[in-house]
Design goal:
Layout (H helix, E strand, L loop, with lengths): L2 H5 L2 H20 L5 H28 L6 H22 L7 H32 L2 H20 L5 H9 L1
Length: 166
Amino acid sequence: MAGDEKDQDVVAVILKDHRTMEDLFRRMRSVEADRAKALEEFSALLIAHGEAEETEVYGALKRFKHVDDEEVEHGEKEHAEGNEALLALLEVDDVGSEEWDGRLEDLVEAVTHHVDEEERTILNAARENVPDERRAELGAAFLKERAEQLASGCGSIENVRGIVGG
């Protein structure tokens, strides 16, 4: 894979987002961090990431023989669960309160479960069965959609409510 293509491999860019989400979880848990700012960043990333996966990646992966369609559909269901947990956290006004911390842990659990399953099933299957060139094309499409989502303020509580209720 050429250097430019490797930078846009859909598996690599999704994994990079997953690691960023884990870092943001650490910041949201830390009393020394700006937890509200970390939640704002996380909310935008989670929504942009999930929308880009569903719009640009999941459908394309279903066309490959050894990528399990049921796992892809399960991933979409887990996105909805993560979005619901995110909304529940965003609706708590008192950052760092007992209620906020409890809802944060619900969010961490929902997203961590999804990330783990997606990495073991969908992404490994994509790595093994989708040609490098196609993974690079999907990565470029994912990054473009993700950037458009981020630019639109996708992590706002109003938008998350629309996605969860919609």
